[in-house]
Amino acid sequence: MFKIQVEETEDIDGNGDDSEKSNPDINIMKIIKDEMAVFEAVAQRPKTLQMLYDALITVPSTSCEAE
Question: What is the pLDDT of residue 41?
Fold first, then answer.
C-alpha cells in the first residue's frame, strides 16, 4: 500500500555493512511531519496523509470491556 524508499549507504569497502544506514522509523516520522506541516498550512490533506488516514479509519474499534 505505502511505498517508502529508504536510502542505503555502503561503507568504504562496498560490502554494505555501514552502521550509518538510514533508519526507516526516522524517515517515516520525517515524512509524516512534513505531510502534517502541509496539512496545517493549506488545510487540505496531501495524498499520502489521506491514504494513511483512510488506512487507519478502516481499522475496527475494539472494546476493552470484559465480555
Answer: 94
**Cell numbers describing residue 60:** 475496527
CA–CA separation, 36 and 43 (whole Å): 10
The whole-angstrom separation of Cα 53 and Cα 51 is: 5
- Is pLDDT above 70 for 62? yes
How far the first Cα of the chain sits from its last, in Å, is 34
Q: 31 exposed, middle or buried (CB, 10 Å; 0-12, 13-18, 19+)?
A: middle
Q: Where are the domains of the chain?
A: 24-55
Mean pLDDT of 19-39: 78
Alpha-carbon torsion, ordered 40, 44, 47, 53, to 10 deg: 80
